Amino acid sequence: MMIPRAEQAKVHLEKVLPSDKVVMVADPKRIKQVIINLLSNSIKFTPENGTVKLVVRYNLEDKQIIIEIIDTGIGIAQQDLYKVMSVFGQVDSKHSRKYEGTGLGLPLSKKLVELMNGIFKIKSEPNSGTVITLTFPYTEDLQEQGF
User: Fold this and answer.
1) H or E element in which residue 78 lies
2) How many domains does the chain have?
3) Which domain holds residue 60?
4) Both ends of the chain: CA-CA distance in Å?
5) Residue 87: its pLDDT value, please?
6) Torsion over CA of 71, 82, 31 and 103, rounded to 10 degrees?
7) Maximum Cα–Cα distance for the chain, whole Å?
8) Rounded Cα gap, residues 106 and 114, in angstroms
9) In what residue span(s) does the Histidine kinase domain sit (predicted)?
10) What percent of the chain has pLDDT over 70?
11) Using CA atoms, how far apart are residues 31 and 108, in angstroms rounded to an integer?
């Protein structure tokens, strides 16, 4: 689903996944919805020949599953992060006119992540790109049960 969109935008799409299966307690439909939304945003705001990367890893020590969406896109100024994270929020600029959207994707994604006991973090730098980190807990009990 994302590959044709990235190809059309002439953006390189990469993924880094762990070699073994990662299991988390979450709503699979909502996780997919969040990842697709975040990848779509990254592709939309990344110029030609830029890169969007999906990284999934786990931290056994902290009992966390970490999903990162990293792009080399246009980025967001620190003072504008609150705008893009608010419902219907968009940064007023030539970019908001160039790239259509409702301003619901990021706040909805954040809320869905939080409803699944996850943490949503965003770091961005204008002209350098954005990193969105989703952190979810998992329990050793699941691991011991072979999940």
Assistant:
1) none
2) 1
3) 2-144
4) 27
5) 64
6) -90
7) 52
8) 12
9) 1-140
10) 82
11) 12
